[in-house]
Structures are given as C-alpha cells and as structure tokens.
Design brief:
The protein folds into 3 domains: 189 residues, FAD/NAD(P)-binding domain, CATH 3.50.50.60; 119 residues, D-Amino Acid Oxidase, Chain A, domain 2; 78 residues. Helices cover 34% and strands 21% of the residues. The chain is built from 10 helices and 19 strands. A 7-stranded mixed sheet has the order 6-5-14-15-16-13-17, sandwiched between helices. It has a 6-stranded mixed sheet with strand order 8-2-1-12-19-18, covered by helices on one side. Strands 3-7-4 form a 3-stranded antiparallel sheet. The protein starts with 9 loop residues before the first strand and ends with a helix.
C-alpha cells in the first residue's frame, strides 16, 4: 500500500544548500500543480552571506548549461550580481603546450558563482551568494527557513527531527546535508553516505591582466595532482585541486610548479581562504525509505563535475515521485532508485574517459597526436570540433559521460588520432 502526502502534511528538509532549496522549490511547485497544501521547513543553521568556509558549501562554483536551462524552465533567472563570470574558454596547459578549448555551443552558458559570501579575508564588499539566492526563492514559494542545526533524526512511526531544544515530527523527510556535514539519521534508517575524495581549494585576488572569462586547467604537478583549475570569479580567482595526498600546502606547490607566482603575484600570504572539502565519488547506500529520501551529494552525484546540476535534477525526480507516486520505500525503490542508478552507470563511463585521459597525458605520442587533432579540427566549423567537445564536456560536466565516451570511440574519431600518431612517428 502506498503512503501518500495529503493536505496539511509537514515536509522537513535538512540542509539549505542547493539540494535542499531545489527540493523545496520542486516540492512546492509540484504540490500546487496537484492542488496539495503542504508545510515545508528547511533546517539550515548557516548564514550563506558570511565570508569564508563558515558560510560556504565549499565547491569550485561552476554552473553548467543544463542546470541553467532547468532553472529557466522554472522561471528562475540568476541576477547579474550572483554571476561572477561568464566562462567562454578552457586553457589546457600540457608540458610546453597550451590549447584553448572554446565553448562548443555559444548558446549553452557556463558561469561561475560564489556559494557563500566570498573569501574569508574578503577584499571589499561581499559578492552575492548563490545559495542565499536559492534559499530565498524557496522561502518566497512558501517554505519556512529555520536556522537551527539538526542534531539527530529518530524514527517514531515517522521521522522526528531533533534540534538543540526542539523536536519536529514530520510526515516526509528530505536529507540534503551534502557530503561535508555529518548525516544526523539514526541507525534505524540504515543510511550509509557515499565514499569521498579530498579536494584542496583557495582564493586569491585576480590580477587585472588575468582573463575574466577563461578557466586554466593543469594536470601534472605537484605530485599526486589529477586536475587543477584556476577559475575567475569577479575580482578573485578560485584555485581547485583534485588528487591523491594533497594538503592545503599543495596550493603553494601547485602555483610554483606552474611558474605562476609572478603572474598571479602570489605569496603564501596571498591566500584569502583555504579549505579541504570532500567530494562524493560513489552513491550512498540505503538512501531512501518509508517517508524519507536523500537528494544531492547525500544520495548520488555526477563524478567530479556538475554536482549542483545533478542535485537539481535528482531533487526534481525525488519530489515528483513523492507527489505523484507516494513517499513509501516501495515508491522510491520503483522510481527514484532507477534514476540514481542511471547516474551511477553514467559515472562508469566517466571513469573510463578520465582513465583514457590519464593514459593520453602520460604518453608523449598520444598526447602530441591529441594536441594535433585538436588544432587540426579548429580550422573546421565549430560543430566539427569533436575532440574539443569531448574535453569540454569532461571538464564541465555539461554532457552525459556516456554520450562523450561513445563519441570518443567513433571510428572517425579513433582514425583521426591514429592518423596523427602516424604523422608524429614519421616526423
């Protein structure tokens, strides 16, 4: 028998970041479409306008075109002060080579934002917070924001949310805590969070000569680096590193390894923030049940890229099921679990793509063949820039990994690489 939401039911959402705000926005919009009157409370203790890690959800802050398209369909247009940069180009630095990968489709916007109120050592006024903007949108639709930290959630015939002094029985619970907060669910829920990897991030002032619409990407140094990016955000640059064995001191090593200290006017005291967030690299286990469901990083997300876009669409799927199918374990198992499995399946293709990329940059022959293939196709019309499109999609998460993988192994694409290998060996 399905458990259904009814008029007057109370939905409690733990976490007021994008996943929680998206869940509230989708839930309230869908409830109105079905003439259903719900109470929705978002439990979020942080002030996202606060500078530094205390007000930030600690990510690189790039929004994909697929997310912006989803927001537009809901009638949500990001105000100009929330957008820190319109990103047009990725500059790829490999050995002594530099390649500029242009946005394959100019109509598909990629932008950078701040999740919180900017760097801890803020220089001047605080930039507008994306998370604050979304939370206010949810409140404007009818959600209540309760600035209290959830200490525990226990099961007493339904979820009961415990804050410092209060308890809130809810008819439907949404877990949207992300991956850098402790999940407050009791053992009765059976929830197990995703596996994670460590990132290292910092902010520095952007020199006036530094491009405000180009992301620079590096892949070699320091030791253990998998991917390093310099992302313009208004008057600042975000530095994001992903790899093995990195620490907050790796930022200084990274800048030195790329010979960027002078260009960026960087010294250790240039650091304006600094954090070591975790990112999810697998799905959670037991992330739904009777009267509750997890969304965003707390459930499943895209591998390495477009976590905010993934949170938008996963929250949309979960809330649609809650309104149209019910809030029982069976309903989420039949309809939400397959959606999440598709993300996990797509991530397998992502792992293949990133493994192929690692092999490419480690092989002088393959690397030069790939570089020549990219340069060769840049003379053709933009719709024929296949190699550029694949790498752009990997760096931004703007297309499914499965589509990019099958594009990368198309006979004409493989033949193009082989042709350039042959040419390189002859030279």
């Amino acid at each position: 028998m399905q458990t259904r939401l009814k008029d007057g039911d109370h939905a409690g959402i733990i976490g007021g970041g994008p996943a929680g705000s998206f869940a509230a926005i989708h839930l309230l919009n869908l409830a109105r479409q079905h003439n259903l009157d719900l109470q929705v409370t978002i439990f979020e203790p942080r002030d996202f306008n606060r500078p530094g890690p205390g007000g930030c959800n600690r990510c690189a802050g790039i929004l994909s075109s697929r997310l912006l398209s989803g927001l537009n369909r809901l009638g949500i247009q990001l105000p100009p002060d929330v957008i820190q940069a319109e990103l047009q180009t990725y500059a790829i630095y490999l050995d002594d080579e530099t390649l500029e990968i242009q946005q394959p489709d100019p109509s598909r916007r990629i932008v950078s934002i701040y999740r919180g109120g900017g760097p801890r050592l803020l220089q001047g006024p605080s930039p507008a917070s994306f998370d604050t903007y979304l939370l206010k949108k949810a409140v404007a639709l009818g959600a209540k924001h309760l600035p209290q930290r959830v200490r525990a959630v226990r099961w007493k015939k339904r979820p009961v949310i415990h804050t410092g002094r209060n308890r809130f029985p809810v008819d439907f619970l949404v877990l949207a805590t992300g991956i850098n907060s402790r999940p407050p669910l009791s053992a009765a829920f059976g929830y197990h969070p995703p596996r994670t990897e460590l990132m290292v991030q910092d902010e520095i002032l952007r020199p006036s000569s530094w491009s405000d619409d180009q992301v620079r990407a590096y892949f070699r140094e320091p030791s253990g680096l998998f991917f390093g990016a310099l992302i313009p955000k208004g008057k600042y640059i975000n530095i994001s590193l992903l790899g093995k064995g990195l620490t907050i001191n790796s930022i200084e090593d990274f800048i030195a390894a790329q010979n960027l200290s002078q260009d960026l006017q960087f010294a250790p005291e240039s650091s304006l923030c600094g954090c070591t967030p975790r990112i999810a690299i697998s799905s959670a286990r037991h992330f739904y049940g009777n009267r509750w469901v997890a969304v965003g990083d707390a459930a499943v997300t895209r591998l390495y890229k477009d976590g905010i876009g993934s949170a938008f669409y996963a929250a949309q799927a979960a809330m649609r099921i809650a309104i149209e199918r019910g809030i029982s374990r069976r309903a989420f198992g039949l309809w939400y679990a397959p959606y999440c499995r598709r993300i996990t399946h797509d991530n397998l293709y992502g792992r293949l793509l990133f493994a192929l990329w690692k092999l490419t940059i480690r092989s002088k022959i393959f690397l030069h063949a790939w570089i020549n293939a990219v340069r060769s196709e840049q003379k053709a019309p933009s719709q024929e820039h296949v190699h550029s499109r694949i790498l752009w999609g990997m760096l931004t998460g703007d297309e499914p990994y499965k589509s990019l993988f099958w594009l990368s192994v198309r006979p004409q694409v493989v033949w193009d690489i082989l042709r350039h290998i042959k040419s390189y060996l002859r030279s």
